[in-house]
């Protein structure tokens, strides 16, 4: 896709990037406005590809999805925090919309590691 950019914040800082946001992955959701963009898009669900993917539609989808990440963090092995920012298109300022962190005790981490090992061993037996 021609609109892909480097997704790692530590490789090249963004303008107005908050000071505490030094590492992580950046997901950029390109919008589709023109008829040609709509027809060529792989991210528009519309089967006849007539509806543009506007900022409002995308924000509505993200507002539905983002709260689910809070529970999902409990099941992810290497992702422990999630921060959802929206960059203002006029000022390029970052606006934090949601932030979630999973805090596990050492015992809980060890239990999760043991569960993961058990599941891996079980999988090998099948």
Explain what this protein looks like in three dimensions:
With 126 residues, this protein is an alpha+beta fold. The protein is 35% helix and 12% strand. It contains three helices and two strands, in the order ααββα. The protein has helices at 35-40, 55-72, 106-125; strands spanning 81-87, 94-101. A two-stranded antiparallel sheet has the order 1-2. A hairpin with a 6-residue loop joins strand 1 (81-87) and strand 2 (94-101). The N and C termini lie far apart (39 Å). Residues 1-5 have low confidence and may be disordered.
**Quaternary structure state of the chains depicted:** single chain
Termini distance? 39 Å
Could you tell me the radius of gyration in angstroms?
19 Å
As residue ranges, the low-confidence spans are 1-5
> Strand-residue fraction?
5-15%
Q: Biggest β-sheet: count, sense, barrel?
A: 2 strands, antiparallel
Spatial order of the strands forming the largest sheet: 1-2
Number of helices: 3
Mean pLDDT: 77
Query: Quick one: overall form?
Result: extended
């Amino acid at each position: 896709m021609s609109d892909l950019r480097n997704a790692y914040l530590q490789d090249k800082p963004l303008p107005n990037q908050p000071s505490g946001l030094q590492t992580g992955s950046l997901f950029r959701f390109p919008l589709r406005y023109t008829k040609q963009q709509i027809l060529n898009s792989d991210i528009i669900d519309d089967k006849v590809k007539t509806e543009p993917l506007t900022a409002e539609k995308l924000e509505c989808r993200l507002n539905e999805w983002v709260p689910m990440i809070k529970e999902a963090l409990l099941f992810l092995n290497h992702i422990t925090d999630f921060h959802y920012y929206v960059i203002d298109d006029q000022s390029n300022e970052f606006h934090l919309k949601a932030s979630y962190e999973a805090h596990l005790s050492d015992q809980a981490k060890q239990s999760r590691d043991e569960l993961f090992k058990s599941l891996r061993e079980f999988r090998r037996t099948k």
